[in-house]
Recover the amino acids of this structure.
């Protein structure tokens, strides 16, 4: 049965929306903050539970929204039994964890931050389990990796926390990356990225050649997330997190995401030999190895971490068997494990919180001091050991029974034997948790005097312990639910009867053997531990660090080899690569015969060419003399600008001219701090090599340009489109400007933002330099020699004052007509900037700065904001961002005015360019300002008007 | 007649550009180089103006006006750089 529910996206969104609150309301106190965290969780849980009756009746709820249909990425959600189970676990245990964390976190911990991370994580997890689109699922999957990174590293003052967080992110992130590949393959095979569609294509997927690669990649993601061997090592290191995080992420939810995905895709991926041998074997190995390691962990949370890994392995193995009965047991054990393991983690946290240590060797005898905690821990640990009448016993019995049906490579004994072996260790470490922590004599050397915590802290684990007993005594209560969930996993209705007593069968004997053996193991723990330490099991962290270190070194070697900060090195690599690529393209491609006649060579263009080439050659020859080099660059720039004008590109010519002036001022400001001559740094052979490369690269570009210009385009160019639509669509006859502000307005928009950022970076860098060692160095330098003349000559001041209004008017003129004739905001901005710079040069930095009312930062911001507002304005017109509208207006007395919204956009460009240029030059000229230098109040050195006035007064 | 005059003028200014470049590269002092660059700028204005006359259009006038208005700013900056070291003080 299918139904639509509008609540599904809300259930996912609520934790994310709620995540905005704790960070803010923490100012109102820790209790308020907790309430504001509990509220979205509880509301989401309530909405989820409203669906429960329907799901139990076999309904599947859907909600769909096309997000990026072109990519197959849609915000589709669905809720069936499996989703209900996991979402219920995430939200339900989430509630208990939030309550527990309220009392666990100390006053010094930033609680708002913690709850924000926790809710982010919660939302991501709920997103995973309710997604009906595998791409959407991948997004949530990555979000859980990121938010768990934040949670594990929450105590970022602890190096273990930071390292554990990094390791978890590296391992699960790598798995996530692999999974993206696997999911894409899966989606390609099925022809849809919707999970509900993929689940219908079992035969097509298993018959595909891509089945095995997809399976391996997806399993890599699942195994890393669920800490399966050999990726199990990150989980114990993640225990550096605060205990609520360990209890939530590393027992109940995140580590089960891998299991969830295996269960979700079980109908299409399972049932093949590949699935059985990969999944069941990995699960079995993980289960046994982790159980053995867990017994020898002295850290309470370390013990629980490895026991979690072991139980995850158990569930993985059950899913790997590929039978419906085993899948049902897996589902049942997920429920049971979540209940007892979350409670155990919380009791471990309580012990740590009260006794100030988690080291089992330093604990013991706590049953007298912490009776409540003792009862909870005992019940849940016995359940973990599989002791009747607790829920762990039922699922463990069923698991052992399933193993007897699994033949590994024809051997019917191997799997049951190993499973019993694992169960034996599981019993041993569970007993150890009770025996070595709570039993024995009371000690007097605890780091702190332990006692039971307040009700708020033990309420959560107590509730879970009650569930553990409840399910164990009356399994029929959860029976319908387990059957529905198992039905959702297997895709076929299930009707299994859960009961405590299965009669005398093989599983019972295996169980008894495990319990007796486990008790024996614990009794001989001391001797075994000595042997374990002698054997010296490999330390996963060292191996991981070695691998990461090797990868870092390799990456650094490659990067430094290509790009060591030397300009010559990477330009050489760049030129060689591009030239070779061009040569290959040229030799393998085809090109027609020259079809366009060359123009006759006139005398003036010839002279200009000689000028250009001559100046460039001289530049190469004399580049060590920096000032001469700048003058020669000026010649090149001017010639190019005149060339633009000659070849009918007046816009470019004007831009080039104004940029030229700004560049020269900029470089002169910089040259002031540099030596007059560039020292000779490279050897002759090296210069020869660089010369050859430069000539080859330049020659290749020139040859290519010649080849292109002597032929017609093979395909019709887009110029004709621009010419035809410039006036019609953009409302302007200057095609260049219309392209800038309309056709390619989005590019321009991005560019002005980049320009503004660049100017702000220049500002920030010079500020930093001036404050640091560089500033002190400049101060100690004093003025460079060669001073002569006046600081602010009268003639220059007067000339620039006269020029100012004219230059501004030219700027306005160029701006206004820019849409129809050469000009526009960019050129106008440069012209006005030059007009302002003249005032700075004439009357000095301090004088001009004192008269500057609007900071250049604001000018940049204003420009970008105006451009943005213009772009957004198009939305109100019902058209996409930056679509321009235009009309004609008659202004009496002036002329008919043609106004386009693109003009407003151009104002934004104008302001940004003006602000960026001025801020950059202002920042650089500020570097020359040193303390102790007299600041001029008067605009010029000699002021005849002021002198005359003072003499009259005198 | 105007064509001949234009051709003559183009030749003269073209030649002047080459002389300017020569003076920029081979000069007794920095001042000569900067003055030569300034002259080069002025000669380009003239060339653009002449070209406008030849083509009978006013489009080039603007470019030459812009050069005239901003070109001297570079010369002033060079002068300030040589005299004071600091362009904006």
């Amino acid at each position: 049965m299918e139904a639509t529910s509008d609540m599904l996206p809300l259930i996912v969104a609520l934790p994310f929306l709620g995540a905005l609150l704790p960070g803010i309301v923490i100012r109102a106190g820790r209790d308020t903050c907790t309430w504001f965290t509990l509220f979205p969780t509880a509301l989401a849980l309530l909405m989820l539970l409203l669906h429960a009756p329907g799901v139990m009746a076999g309904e599947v709820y859907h909600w769909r929204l096309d997000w990026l249909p072109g990519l197959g990425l849609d915000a589709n959600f669905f809720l069936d039994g499996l989703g209900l189970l996991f979402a219920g676990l995430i939200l339900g245990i989430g509630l208990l964890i939030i309550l527990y964390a309220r009392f666990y976190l100390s006053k010094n911990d930033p609680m708002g931050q913690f709850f924000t991370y926790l809710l982010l994580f919660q939302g991501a997890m709920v997103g995973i389990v309710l997604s009906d689109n595998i791409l959407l699922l991948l997004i949530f999957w990555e979000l859980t990796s990121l938010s768990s990174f934040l949670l594990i590293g929450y105590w970022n003052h602890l190096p273990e926390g930071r390292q554990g967080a990094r390791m978890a992110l590296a391992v699960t992130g790598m798995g996530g990356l692999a999974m993206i590949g696997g999911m894409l393959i899966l989606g390609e095979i099925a022809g849809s990225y919707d999970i509900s569609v993929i689940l219908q294509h079992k035969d097509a997927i298993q018959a595909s050649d891509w089945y095995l690669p997809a399976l391996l990649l997806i399993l890599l993601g699942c195994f890393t997330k669920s800490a399966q061997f050999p990726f199990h090592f990150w989980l114990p290191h993640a225990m550096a997190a605060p205990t609520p995080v360990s209890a939530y992420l590393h027992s109940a939810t995140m580590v089960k995401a891998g299991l969830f995905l295996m269960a979700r895709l079980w109908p299409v991926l399972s049932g093949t030999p590949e699935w059985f041998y990969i999944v069941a074997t990995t699960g079995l190995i993980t289960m046994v190895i982790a159980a053995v390691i867990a017994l020898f962990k002295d850290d309470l949370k370390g013990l629980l971490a490895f026991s979690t890994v072991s139980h995850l392995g158990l569930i993985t193995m059950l899913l790997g068997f590929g039978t419906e009965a085993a899948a049902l047991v897996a589902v049942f054990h997920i429920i049971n494990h979540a209940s007892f393991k979350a409670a155990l983690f919380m009791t471990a946290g309580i012990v740590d919180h009260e006794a100030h240590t988690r080291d089992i060797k330093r604990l013991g005898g706590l049953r007298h001091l912490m009776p409540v905690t003792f009862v909870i821990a005992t019940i849940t640990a016995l359940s973990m050991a599989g002791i009747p009448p607790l829920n762990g016993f039922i699922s463990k019995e069923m698991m052992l029974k399933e193993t007897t049906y699994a033949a590994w490579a024809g051997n019917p004994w191997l799997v049951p034997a190993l499973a019993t072996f694992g169960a034996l260790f599981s019993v041993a470490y569970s007993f150890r948790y009770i025996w070595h922590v709570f039993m024995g004599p009371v000690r007097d050397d605890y780091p702190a005097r332990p006692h039971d915590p307040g009700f708020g802290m033990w309420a959560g684990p107590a509730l879970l312990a009650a569930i553990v007993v409840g399910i164990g005594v009356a399994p029929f209560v959860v029976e319908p639910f387990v059957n529905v969930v198992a039905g959702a996993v297997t895709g076929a209705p299930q009707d299994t009867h859960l009961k405590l007593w299965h009669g005398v069968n093989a599983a019972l004997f295996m169980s008894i053997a495990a319990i007796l053996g486990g008790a024996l193991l614990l009794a001989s723990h001391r001797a075994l531990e000595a042997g374990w330490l002698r054997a010296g099991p490999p330390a996963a962290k060292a191996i991981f660090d070695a691998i990461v270190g090797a990868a870092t070194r390799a990456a650094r070697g490659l990067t430094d080899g290509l790009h060591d900060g030397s300009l010559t090195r990477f330009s050489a690599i760049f030129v060689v690569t591009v030239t070779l690529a061009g040569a290959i393209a040229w030799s393998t491609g085809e090109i027609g015969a020259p079809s366009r006649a060359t123009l006759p060579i006139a005398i003036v263009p010839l002279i200009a060419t000689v000028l250009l080439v001559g100046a460039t050659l001289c530049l190469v020859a004399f580049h060590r003399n920096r000032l001469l080099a700048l003058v020669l660059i000026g010649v090149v720039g001017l010639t190019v600008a005149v060339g633009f004008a000659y070849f009918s590109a007046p816009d470019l010519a004007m831009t080039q001219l104004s940029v030229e002036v700004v560049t020269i001022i900029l470089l002169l400001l910089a040259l002031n701090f540099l030596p007059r001559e560039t020292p000779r740094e490279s050897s002759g052979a090296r210069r020869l090599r660089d010369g050859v490369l430069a000539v080859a690269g330049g020659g290749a570009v020139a040859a290519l340009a010649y080849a292109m210009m002597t032929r017609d385009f093979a395909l019709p160019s887009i110029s004709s489109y621009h010419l035809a639509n410039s006036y019609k669509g953009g409302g302007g006859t200057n095609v260049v400007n219309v392209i800038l502000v309309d056709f390619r307005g989005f590019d321009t928009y991005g560019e002005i933002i980049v320009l503004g950022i660049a100017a702000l970076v220049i500002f920030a860098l010079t500020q930093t330099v001036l404050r640091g060692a560089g500033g002190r160095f400049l101060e100690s330098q004093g003025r460079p020699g060669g001073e002569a003349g006046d600081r602010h000559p009268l003639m220059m001041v007067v000339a620039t004052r006269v020029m100012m209004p004219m230059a501004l008017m030219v700027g306005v003129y160029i701006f206004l007509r820019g849409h129809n004739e050469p000009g526009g905001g960019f050129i106008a901005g440069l012209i006005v900037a030059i007009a302002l710079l003249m005032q700075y040069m004439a009357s000095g930095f301090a004088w001009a700065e004192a008269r500057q009312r609007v900071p250049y930062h604001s000018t940049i911001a204003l420009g970008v904001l105006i451009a943005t507002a213009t772009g957004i304005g198009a939305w109100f017109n019902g058209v996409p961002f930056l679509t321009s509208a235009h009309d004609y207006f008659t202004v009496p007395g002036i002329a008919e005015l043609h106004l386009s919204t693109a003009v407003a956009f151009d104002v934004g460009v104008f302001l940004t360019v003006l602000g960026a240029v001025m801020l950059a030059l202002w920042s650089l000229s500020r570097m020359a300002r040193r303390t102790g230098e007299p600041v001029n109040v008067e605009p010029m050195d000699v002021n005849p008007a002021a002198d005359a006035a003072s003499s009259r007064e005198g | 007649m105007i064509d001949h005059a234009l051709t003559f003028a183009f030749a003269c200014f073209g030649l002047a550009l080459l002389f300017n470049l020569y003076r920029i590269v081979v000069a007794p002092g920095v001042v000569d180089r900067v003055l030569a660059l300034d002259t080069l700028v002025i000669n380009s204005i003239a060339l653009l103006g002449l070209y406008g006359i030849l083509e009978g259009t006013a489009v080039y006038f603007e470019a030459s006006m812009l050069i005239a208005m901003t070109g001297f700013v570079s010369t002033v900056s060079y002068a300030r750089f040589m005299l004071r070291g600091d362009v904006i003080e």
Q: What stands out?
A: The radius of gyration of chain A is 37 Å. Chain A has a mean pLDDT of 86. Residues 159-190 of chain A form the longest helix (32 residues).
